[in-house]
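so i finally got all the pieces together for this one. its four components total, 1642 residues if u count the protein bits. some of the lines might not be protein, just check the labels. i wanna see the whole assembly predicted at once instead of chain by chain like last time, that was a mess tbh
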Amino acid sequence: MHRRNRGTAMTRNVLGLFRDPDSALAAAGRLKGAGFERPELMSPIPIHGVEEVLGPKKSVIKRFTLVGGLLGAISGFTLAAWTAVLYVHPTGGRPIITLPPFLIITYEMTILFGILATVLGFLISARFPAIRERIYVPETAVDRFAVVVACSSDDLLQRAESILHEAGAEEVRRITEGDS
Amino acid sequence: MQTEVRQARFADVNDDVVRSLVVTGRNYYIALGIAGFVTLTCFFFPWFYQLYYGIGAAGMNSPTVWGTYLASFIFWIGLSHSGTLLSCVLHLTNSEWRKAMYRSAEAMTFFSLFVAITMVMVHIGRPWFIHWAAPYPNQMGLWPNFRSPLMFDVMAIMTYLTGSGIFIYMGAIPDFAAVRDRTTGWRHHLYVLLSLGWRGTDKEWHRLGWAYTFLAVLIIPLAVSVHSIVSWDFALSIVPGLHQTIFAPYFVVGAIYSGTAGIVTVMFVLRKYMNFEHYITKLHFDNLGKLLLLLSLLWTYINMLELFTGWFSGTSTEYEQLKYKLTGFYAPLYWEMILFCAVAPLLLISRKFRTSFVPMLILSIAINIGMYTERFLIVATTLSRQYLPGSWRVYVPSLVEISILVGSLALFVTLFLLFVKIFPSISIYEIKETMDAPKKQGDRHDT
Amino acid sequence: MSNVDRRQFLKLVGAGGVGAGAGFMLAESIKHPVEYLIPYPIPPEEFSPGIATWYNSVCGMCPAGCGISVRTREGRAKKIEGNPLHPVNQGRLCALGQAGLQSLYNPDRLTGPMLQSGERGSEEFIQTTWEESLATVAHRLAAARDGGKNIYLLSEGVRGHLAMLLERFMGGLGSEHLMHYDFAHPHALYAANQRLFGEHALPYYDIRNTRYLLSFGADYLSNWLSPVHHSLGFGHSRQGTDLDRGRFVQIEAKMSLSGAAADEWIPARPGSEGILALGLAHQILAGGSYTGSDFDDWNAALENYSADSVAERTGVAAKTIVRLASEFTKAEPGLAIGGGAVDNHSNAVDTLVAVNLLNYLVGNIGKPGGVVFNSDPVVGGPANNRQANFIAMQQLAEQARQGAIDVLIVNNTNPVFTLPHASGFREALASIPMIVSLSSFMDETTTMADVILPSHSYLESWGDDMPQPGLGFPVAAISQPVVSPLYNTRATGDIILDLAGKLGMKDSMPWDSMEACLKDGWRQIYERSSPDASDFDTFWRDVLVSGVWGEDIHRQDTVVVDKSVIDNIDVAEPEFSGDSEQYPFFLHPYMSTAMYDGRGANLPWMQELPDPMTSIVYGSWVEMNPATAKRLGLLDGDLVSIASEHGSLEAPVVIFPAIMPEVIAMPIGQGHNAFGRYARDRGVNPLQILAPITATSSGSLATHATRVSLTATGRRAPPVQTGGETRQLGRNIVQFTDAGSTPGGHSANLNSIPIVVKTT
Amino acid sequence: MNFIDRFMASWRKYRKPGYYEEFDYAWTMTIDLDRCTGCGACVTACQAENNIPIVGEKELGRGREMQWIRIERYWEGEYPNAKLSFIPMLCQHCDAAPCETVCPVSATYHNQDGLNTQIYNRCIGTRSCAVYCPYEVRYFNYYDHHWDAPLEQQLNPDVTVREKGVMEKCTFCVQRIRQAKDHAKDDGRRRVKDGEVQPACVQTCPSEAMTFGDRKDANSVVAKKMNDPRAYHVLEETNTLPSVVYLKKVSANAD
């Protein structure tokens, strides 16, 4: 993870490690209160109540799902009906465009596209996969809770550090995020 | 339950899971070796033999043109309904106890689907042309016949495979990240890729939560539709004994039933041989037991309905069918099925039984044997007794068929064994969620 | 209808794939058949690949003599269909006839002349050349002739010019011992006709126009005399006219195919059918419809055949007898026929006389829908007087055992298979110094031969035929090669002519080929028939195109039965071998369409054609009444051993609902120990355990006169069946109605046998 | 607007069931059970015409018979009043064929002659059609069959030989129908004459129990026979609209 911090200095961040989610969340709240731009939390488990402290988040995923579903419905029926007309195979005395079976196809395609779109939505909205280096401390994958805040100037850095210390961070680091 | 888990700390969870991935005992290799060998000799060799000489290697005959292959297909599809479906339901109902087991359950889904698809390949007469059943533009200008229930199958199963694959993967991203930092060598690179650079920021968690929930919502109706459609392969025919409206629910219930039993089996194995005693506990067996009981009752009910339909119809075709089922050539199998799937599960009424591991294991296996029999009977009894008595003929599986059945089990086991070494077979972060997170004034345990 | 005339021939020529090309082909093929019938690497211009050519010929699979049209493509026979112009089968054909293709393309055909290298029956032969083999045979024959030794010729029942050739050939050899042997030949029927009608020939039974058929054991739909023609008649009588639907009654111990087709199946005690017939005759007389001058004689002769006594002797209810008699009398016309089992009891002749008597008493002799007498065959000699009955065959065997036979020539007949072991025929053959076989297969008899001169398949050779029984008017048909010979074989006629040539019989047989002989012989026909064909060659070509020739001549003779016949009209009690305690069951061996007398066994199609009654393929079985099986504690598929005084067999049980409890039935045809891969070592041959009992005054083998015992072996060997459950379970698959008959309409007449022109 | 019209037009067209009423022909076979003697001539004729393989005793024992037309036999009653009835069973060429809808690759479908066709080289061998067929007249090639030389010289060049893994069934001798249509065209006729074409089984039936023709032609023999009060369909209740019409057997105790 040292590799991660190589590179020319651009923005500097302060990172505070906490042992428990609540104090981490509290620290984040204070930073926000102190006018820092929205701090970022990193945790091994989803932290509840983030919205209350740092303000609500909006996700575009549901739109993706909806659009994908509709798209699937249309393309599903089109696939069945259009191919049936493309090369007419009369079977079993049924009409060429037979609704009940084609609706089943439609249904399956709706769900398929819905799923794929959801995944797409997730990747896009969560900015995955990560191409560029990002701030990361492996402890957060185990049992530590981190608060990261970007600072534009040295005094802001100090202020952030002090706030984190007060909030009971067991460790505070300065991380220089660089281009990789 | 909680007391047990509280001893473990967050770090231990990571340790245990990573150990389950990187530390590999001799037994594992032996198991894998055996499974692989059986797969090769009992599945692939007979299959190639059959490919070379023709389906004649199997025991099917003129009226009974479907046999154990199709039965196995339904069986595996059914087994696949354990995992993802169950996992989704439990996820949406936020049941805590799901979290320790859903990963392996979903894996079951995925692999049994895989095996089911190979069974189709084994079943059809000219598998080298199976791609003709896939909708793709081709120089012949020919497209598959979307009116066919078999095409519903193709679409549904493909969707289901994709869906459950994505579902299991997405749920595992944070865990990939967790193991990524602890592994080295090829594993590290693999997990770096798989984890997509997951950091666990509040934003990522938020998005993951949403996406995961949506998937769950989408997959539940999908799973239900998949097995309904499998049932329509039969119910849309006019074969007496198959041409029944009850079939869709019948199959779905049966599927979840055998699937749940399958989970119990897998749970037992994981718990025993991957040292997950802390995470897979009596609680899980208890709950699964309750679920099994419910399902067995449902299943029995539907079976009784089926018998009733046959008796009530009064038509010779249906009535003969019923008589044949209860007293005919295959009757012993039928009663064996009733014993395993309707009678034995009544033991689950006692909590003591539910929470004792070995009996649960035995029962779960018995149930799945019974369920396989059910699928076999659905094919064999009905097809050998159709409209024209003059063409009635019984069908007995050939050695090749039986060996391929055994082989398919081995194939499943092999795949699963490989899986547990690549996938964190229990969900790290959700286990942690079930443990109470450290409090501000909580005791400071040393690192 | 006068001669089957040229316009119809030309229609046929024009029809379907034949086209003008075929006419030309035929004309050409007359000159050099071989040159034009090879599947060519480079086809000549008049032979267009992809265009089928049809050749009309005569079926050689059974003695019925149906006309066939063979579809050939690129010089290979592809399909045999009935010749629509041939009045016997009118375009239709039975399963066996169609399987003729497989006797042509049979993998086990003999491919060239052979000399025996090992000892008799060892089936060790070495290939040789025609020159050598013919020389050997000719030399041997010459020696025998000059040394005054006995030469026997045992042939299948041949007719037309081949029959004539054989006559002259044996004449030239100074031998009287020309015998025709057909297992299924109805000797007793001939004898019966001789006795009652005073002529040793088969009449034409006009089933087509009868309204009421009383069949005593004759399986006329599957193998009796001319099954295809009978089937046509059956169908027409059933639903083909506006008249009342024809009614069919079958009297036999075991339901045959005809029994299944009949409206009424009546089991009568084996051998008692004749008594039943006389009982019916008694009733007819009582009914008073018979007004012949000899009424009183009949009455006297039949007085002790009252319904009750007959019922008691036959096991048929008295009221049934009365009903049958009245139905038969009322029907216009009604027809009684007898054959099958009836033809094969010790009292067969009496029985068949009694059966014919019924026809006589209701006065349907020489009438449409009745018994019509045939005129003599137009060419060749009458063949039937040469038919060898069982006694003759036994004499042959006896002669052989005494070393009185020097040379035996066997032409395509297989007595070793069809004669019972008790006849000792096979052993007798061993003591004949020289046996020559002209068979095209390595059948049981041929395995005994010293020299094999393999003959063509009938699809490769020239010949002609006058169907027996005729149709009441003269019919003659030409059989011509439809493909070039596959192997180094020769037509029987040509072989005979070759030998004749070598033996210096040129004067009596001047022809150098069978074809030449035919052409010569058919000149008579050309001359006697009103020649609307300009010259003989045209006529000949037309005949070849149509494959058949007919003439509208009918005999108008009235039959008067001799007083002596009337006075001693009686049916003796049948005689059976084995006492009823030790051998409680009557053995009922029967022929089937597929196997006929065993000749079908080497044809895969026939082996795979499910037996209609039991749906069994491949192998043998024994049919018994459910009650019998129950009594013996036997189930379907149990292997039982069937023992007579003369041997025993093992066969699986098939429970058969329509057979008398004291009778067990076994199909004839399987149980070959030679005859090629499909036939060999499959099933058993019931004929071999038969007792050598002959029918009085016909001398034919009474195949139904053997009693047998059944013992369970405790083993199971279920036969291969293609059918499953045999009951409908109320599913209305076969539906019945009673609104079948549509009354009123015109009366049919015999001459109007439709000549359908094939349109393909 | 114009587009909408065209769309609606074709929509209505393709939504119309029972298109088979618009086919050129509706080939039909009638089988008079009162004439059928069960002799089996049709079975052999079919084998000869359609290159149906010789399956062999072993395979037949395993229930893999290959006879596009078979004679089913049904007993009524017990001795001495047992009656045996035969019914030739072959592909009924149903207009509402269950087998057609189920094929995932359209290997079997209804063609312009109203025939239920089987396209061997499209078949992937799911065998579902055989399951869906209530008449059990579809036969599967469990192996590659072979003919002992020179039996193969008899094979009909107008009909293919099927490979393993393929479903096959009665075609109403489609090769003959094609030929007849070609002849009709050569003679400048629009339609095939009645009686001009006969499948092998019909052609050979010794008791003339079977007739074949186009039921669209009101004067054809089959059309007339279909009006016979005895006419019925086997398994009418399955509503498959068969093209094979059976004429009821007249029961013995009718009079």
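The CA atoms of residues 60 and 113 of chain A lie 16 Å apart.
Helices of chain A lie at 21-33, 50-54, 61-86, 99-125, 154-166.
anyway lmk what u think
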